Each structure stands twice: as C-alpha cells, then as structure tokens.
Amino acid sequence: MRAPRTESAAMTQRWRWLALVALLVAEAMNLLDATIVQVAAPTIHAVLGGSTADVQWLGAAYTLPFALLLITGGRLGDIAGRKRVFLIGVAGFGIASVGCALAPDVSVLIGWRAVQGAAAAFVIPQTFGLVKAMFEGRELAKALGSIGPVMGLAAICGPALGALVVDADLLGWSWRAAFLINIPLVVAVLCCAPVLLENAAADRPRLDLAGTVLAVAGFALVVYPLIEGREWGWPRWTWAIVAAGLATLVGFGVAQRIAAARGRATLVEVSLFADRRFPAALVASTLFFAVMNGLMLVIVLHLQLGLGRDVLSAGLALLPWTAGSAVASWVAGTWLVPRYGARVMQVGLAVLAFGLLATVTAYAHAPAGGWATLSALGVCGVGLGLFTVPFFTTALARVAPHETGSAAGLLNAVQQLGATFGTAALGTVVLRGLDGGDPATATAAVQQAFWIALALTAATAVAAAVMAGPEHPIVGTRRPGRRFATEFSGPRGTVRNHNI
Questions:
Q1: Are 174 and 54 in contact (CB under 8 A)?
Q2: Number of alpha helices (DSSP H) and beta strands (DSSP E) in the chain
Q3: Inter-residue long-range contacts of 281-285, CB under 8 Å, 24+ positions, other chains counted
Q4: Minimal CA–CA distance to 408: which of 268, 202, 280, 288?
C-alpha cells in the first residue's frame, strides 16, 4: 500500500536514492558479517578456546535464527510497518555486534551471534517492500537491479576485509574489530531513517506463532546433534534427537495444512506445494547453499587449523571463489539468462562439478593455496554464479502473484538453512580430520568434504531439473483457481475443503 503524499513522503521522494543506499548498506552488512566471521572463526577459537565445534556454531548460531525468523520478520513488517521493523532490526543488529565484540567467552559470543541472526531476520524482508514504496516504473527496475551487484561486491570484499582487519590487530582488538566494522554501517543507516518511507500491507496478515515455534524447535533439534555429535562420539541419543527433530518438522507440515484448511494464519503459503516444482526448488536451494557455505568453511579451517596459515592467507585464498561467483552472476544476469533461460542452471552445476573435481585433484598433487588450487576454486565460483541467477528467476517464475512474497521468503529461509546444514555436515567432516594434527590426514578430510559436495551437487541437478520441468500436481494439495479437494484429520474430526 503506497503511503499518502505527506510532508514525510515528499521528503522521501526527493531523497529516495539516498534511502536506497541505506537499504543496500543494510543488505550488504548482513553478507559482510557472515563472510567476515567465517574467516575469523579459527582465530576466535584460538583466542577464546572451547571445543572445535564452537567454530561451527559461530556460523550456525547466526544462520539458524536468521532462516527460521525470516518469514515471521516479513509478516511483522506487513503488520507494524516495514520502516519501523527495519529500523528496530538494524538497531538490534548493531547492539548485538557490540555484544559480540565485548564477549568474554565463546558461549556469550555464540549467544550474541544468535541475536544478530534474529535481528537480520527483521531487516532483510523489509527492503523489497520499502524499495517498491519509493520507486515506480523504470526507476523501480533500476533500484531492484542494483541489489545484485552490491551483494556481489560484499561477497568479494567480506573474506578479504575480515582477514585484513583481524590480521592488522587494530588497537590490539584482534578478531573483536571484525564485529565493530558493523557499527559505522549501522549508524549510517539509522541516520538515513528520516528519508525512509513508512509502508505496510493493505491487508495485514496474522502471525503464526505456533508454526514458528514448531519450525524453530524442529530445525534446532536436527542441527544441534549434527554439530556436537563428533565431540560426543555419536552416542545413540544424538540420533534420537535428530529423529525427534524430523518428527517435529513433519508435525509442522501437517499443522500448516490443517491451519490452511481451517482458514487460519500459516507460516507458509500451502498452495505453493500444489505441484512438485516449488518443493523441488526448495530442495535445490538447500543442497546448493549447503555446498556453497559448507565448502567456504572447509577451506578456511584447513588453511588455518590444519596447515597453520594465518588469517590473511585464508581470506585471500577465498578471493578466486568469491570473485568468480560475482563475475559469473553478472554475466548470467546480463547475457546468458535472457537468451537461454533455465538451461543456464545445469551449465552452472556442470561447471561447479568440474571445479570440485579439479580442486580434489589439486589438493592431491599441489600445495594448498597454490595456483592450481586457487584456479580450481575460481572455477567453482564461476559455477556457483552461473547457477544462482537462473535458479531464483526460474523458482519464482511460475508462482501466482499472491504467492510471490511467501515464495521469496521460503527460498531465502532455506538458503540460510542450507548454509547451516553445510556448516554442520561438511565442517564436521574436516574437523574430524584435523583432530590428529597430521597435515596429510587433514588434506584427506578436505578431499572427502569436496567429494560429498560433489554428490550434493548431483542431487541439486536432479532437483533443478524437476523444478524447471512441466507441472506435476501433488495429490491432496490446494492451488487457487483450480478444482481441489483436500482432507485432513484433526482433533475435531475430519476436515474437508472443496473449491469448485
């Protein structure tokens, strides 16, 4: 709903490009923080101590609440106003960043990382709606088109910037300075608050608190033993916790369908699951970002904990990966996708698979961090970039207009969940190889992680093929505008919905 032309709206109209810069800075701040901490994590572990699993938690504690609260954060913006929720999230992110920088031990730091992730979930969903409220027509397309290049630049700069800041040991703050980078960005965004236009949904949705609790509990129960299981020796009760988490997620899915059938608020738009294509997109996103984020952690852990390289070497080693991804994304979005469409996805995955095989070979026959390894990582980055642009375009192309917001929120959420699972699974593989302190064993563990990533890439290709294929309706699901009959068993008996 576009706001009426008040004095505030008139000022926003004059300063709308400055407002856009503020929104882009907030978006980039999230990605910068995630990549900076990934590079700084081994240094944090060396200074604060704790178990090696804490290195994984420094990333997972951020991405898990970020993923699970994204949709709720978007709904809060619709209800309370996107500008208000956006500014609360930015302020919360800044406070949590200070808390991280001042953390006396790793447990407190992990707690503040979770607060950071929750705050980011309030920020990111609001930017699209705020941009649409301030721009129209060609200006809107130009404003939205600026998001990709800015995020690409943040992805390139994040690892190198984090490495430089930690290595410089500014004022003796070491890794703590990596979190303080956020503070001037937060202050700059908050100073631009007067030029942001308040905006809320015309039909304000209700919150699905029960669904949010079930989703958070289910995914937390799955992720926690995946990270901590190696430290405990994988006793049977860790697998029981995983099973309980999976059962909770099944219960979440059933509860969502029952709530939708009864006309209640749901966390996700159930009609998105009317055919196999969108669920396939969610699977592809989860697997792909598990590979992308998990391998970045693997590379950093191997160089710093396995080979004893400094943080600057680890950060610079990621440059071919991030630069290749950014350049390929730009090429795909500008030339390839408009001409070849969804077929670019499979090309990207093929290039990624070739890069993974080349990296395994390079680790076997060349020094880590040498030109052969860096070149192979650059090829991996190109594959990542070629896949990302057509993936999101294809995933959202066939959803109904009223489903777009929920679909985009779900895709962003599973992207973060994939990052969490990749950090947990691939990080555990490489940390197990680092336990003995033998460089050869550590390198073998890295190769194993890349082989697992190759298998996940193959599974991603299958899911992407289903996503881009013809419609395959799923029995018992609802699609607006079509005849359907659904039946659910609930506490009040059998509930039937019919739409003719």
A1: no
A2: 19, 2
A3: 281/391, 281/394, 281/395, 281/411, 281/463, 281/467, 282/410, 282/411, 282/414, 283/459, 283/463, 284/391, 284/395, 284/460, 284/463, 284/464, 284/467, 285/391, 285/395, 285/411, 285/414, 285/415, 285/418
A4: 268
Spatial CA neighbour of 55 closest among 66, 63, 65, 45? 45
What is the C-alpha to C-alpha distance for residues 191 and 299, in angstroms, rounded to an integer?
A: 38
Higher pLDDT, 487 or 135: 135
The structure tokens listed for 88 are 């609360």
Residue environment code for 169-196, b if the CB has 16+ CB neighbours within 10 A, otherwise e: eeeeebbbbbbbbbeebbeebeebeebb
Distance between CA atoms of 442 and 432, rounded to whole angstroms?
8
User: Do 409 and 46 contact (CB within 8 A), yes or no?
Assistant: no
Best CA proximity match to 208, nearest among 151, 139, 144, 263: 263
Is residue 32 within 8 A of residue 150, CB to CB? The reply is: no
pLDDT in tens, 446-484: 999 999 999 999 999 999 999 987 765 654 444 444 333
**Euclidean distance between CA atoms 29 and 200, whole angstroms:** 24
Alpha carbons 235 and 291: distance in angstroms, whole number: 26
Q: Which two tokens stand for residue 31?
A: 């990605």
Specify the pTM: 0.83
Tell me the two tokens of residue 65: 């609440």
* Residues sharing a CB contact under 8 Å with residue 444, sequence separation 6 or more, in sequence order: 433
Within 262-342, residue ranges assigned H as helices are 277-301, 311-317, 319-331, 337-340
If residue 255 lies in a helix (H) or strand (E), which one and from where to where? Answer: helix 236-261
- In 3D, which of 356, 213, 206 has the Cα closest to residue 292? 356
List, in order of start, the domains of the chain with CATH numbers. Answer: 1-207 (1.20.1250.20), 271-469 (1.20.1250.20)
The encoded tokens of residue 333 equal 């979005």
Closest CA to 490 of 274, 264, 259: 259
Residue count of the chain: 500
Question: Could you give the dihedral angle defined by the CA atoms of residues 174, 179, 180 and 184, in that order, rounded to the nearest 10 degrees?
Answer: 150
Residue 499: is its pLDDT beyond 60? no
Report helix, strand and coil shares of the chain as percent, to nearest 5.
80, 5, 15
What confidence score (pLDDT) does residue 90 get? Answer: 97
